[in-house]
Amino acid sequence: MLSRTERLKRARITLQHGGVIDPHLIAPHISDSWNRCLERGLDPMGTAHNAQLSARELRQQRDEDELVHRFAASQMQALYQQIAGSNFMIAFGNARGTVLETVSDGEFRSSKPGKAILPGSVWLEELRGTNAMGTAAMIRQPLIVHGEEHFFHAHSDVSCFAAPVFHSDGELAGVLDASSDCRARNTHTLVLMQMAATHIENSLFLRQQSDHLVLLFHSRFELLNSVSGGLISFDSEGRLRAINQRGRSMLSGLSVRPGTAFEAVFDTSFANALGHLGDGIVPTLRDLLGSQYVVQFSGRPVSEGRVRAASSTIVASPVVSVAGFVAEDPALQTELVKVQRAVRRKPPFLILGESGTGKEIIARHIHAASGRSGAFVPVNCGALPEQLFEAELFGYAAGAFTGARKDGSMGLARAADGGTLFLDEIGDLPLPNQVALLRFLDQFEVRAVGSATTHKVDVQVVGATNVDLLSAIAEKRFRSDLFYRLGVVQLNLPPLRERRDFAALTRFMLGELDAALDITDRAVESLAQHEWPGNLRELRSALFQLSLLVTEEPIDIVHMDQLFGSQNASALIESAGLKGLIIRQINELLRTNGNNVSETAKALGISRNTVYKYMRH
Ligand SMILES: Nc1ncnc2c1ncn2[C@@H]1O[C@H](COP(=O)(O)OP(=O)(O)OP(=O)(O)O)[C@@H](O)[C@H]1O
Fold this sequence. Notes:
The protein is an alpha+beta fold. It has 4 domains: 55-206, 2-Layer Sandwich (Beta-Lactamase); 209-317, Beta-Lactamase; 344-492, Rossmann fold; 496-614, no CATH class. It contains 26 helices and 18 strands. The strands form 4 sheets. Strands 8-7-6-10-9-11 form a 6-stranded antiparallel beta sheet. Strands 2-1-5-4-3 form a 5-stranded antiparallel beta sheet, sandwiched between helices. Strands 13-14-17-12-18 form a 5-stranded parallel beta sheet. A hairpin with a 5-residue loop joins strand 9 and strand 10. The radius of gyration is 29 Å and the shape is elongated. The structure holds adenosine-5'-triphosphate. Adenosine-5'-triphosphate binds at residues 325-327, 353, 355-361, 424, 466, 505, 508-509, 536-537, 540.
């Protein structure tokens, strides 16, 4: 029995001498590819046609493939983290075989093959012979092309692993490739590439089908948002528009061609499924062959009226989205799934995330999802003086202390009875206050300062902080028992720089500022390159500043230079012509909201000081 190397050697000799290749010597997809190359008149000992686009042509192709390029670039960064140090180059090529982006590691970059795989180089099989990128595009399947399996002898010192990426309509969108000069046939790398390709495909699917109803489905809840989740979209009439590869295999045995009725796939009516769209409930659905799936909705396909009119007989499990915030990012979605699974059992939630990542908005989401009829009561634990904390939270009896209101106060905990108590900046709570809070969380009993009477309250507790609580515990600034009591369900919010729904967020926030404002894709792309230490709040502020720079035209690259060129909001505002505009905006808002400075500052994404500065008195 010949070894793999021996067999390849024999096949190679036959190839170079123009003989007929024995299909048993090498993998069929390699021999098929060699035969295609021979039919095109390529010579294995000759040189490949090293096509390379000009910078302008490359720019043009990047623009044309902007969406897939962007999703691929972000996956490549993630992949790079995983294989950094192992001398690999990762490349993404579009459907025309043009390398749009590369990320490389170690010496490979300066090696001969490393220098050949450049942005703008074209790796079609018909030009460069059998190669992972070109051949994967040709056969629409993932594959490894190892050393001498490359058609041209000149490429025999490299191993390549490639996985194709498809648009939601099944058309090829590109190929993700990892190349290395390592000799090992490392199939683990191919699996990594396939997973990354699926991530790109899923992002494309969600974006390309966002005008339709998209169902994310899986038999297991915890895998809903993983690469093994199925995606299927339906138009407003309940006709199937698209389905991804995983969805196809989960529903195998059923017809999933475009145009198929929802009812020909699932055992309930489309109207019933829609019934859960607006009410924040994740249903389970059964297909016509009896398999059951947990389902999450995405997209915006149907009118509100239709959603409300639909009845619901689907087995319901708690929650999903409340209007007013964007949550297309997979990491955020995972956290929302946690919320929906837990909220009915009323555990304390602890939201962790950098400043401005949307902790309060998620707390409000938890409140909405809980279906509780009481109030949402926010408490800024960092801003309350230590001595007043208990009085503010638990109330005080009439005349309890100097300066107290004459008739006393029932306190914020009782104000939240039947609703949600949101303990913001919990990491900044002084230690003595932490003890009082812990006591409260044990019993849910409130005794006002200066009073002997206790009241039982029913509150959903949600804490939030941007403080690293584990370090705070180590430094004895935060009690570990409070951490465990509060953090029964911990939610980690991704910072803006890691969010994969940056464009959707930007467009949503812009729409909130002014529905008439538009922004070009490349301007969004340029914004996405920034670090955003202030996260979503900083983005909102930047968008507000950008909105001041445009009149009729959409926000574009040129405005980015003006934005990032300026030091800060004030500098921008002071610059010619803008001062009058911002004064008008601020004062118009103040007029409509009854001179509410905080609300105005929040709505415009600027500080209260800036509002005061430009307020007409
Ligand atoms: N997912 C989202 N979609 C749209 N807007 C969002 C989203 N998350 C947050 N925002 C907006 O970003 C801004 C900051 O959000 P929020 O106040 O909830 O952050 P935070 O983490 O509580 O901030 P801090 O740590 O400073 O208290 C708000 O204007 C909010 O409306």
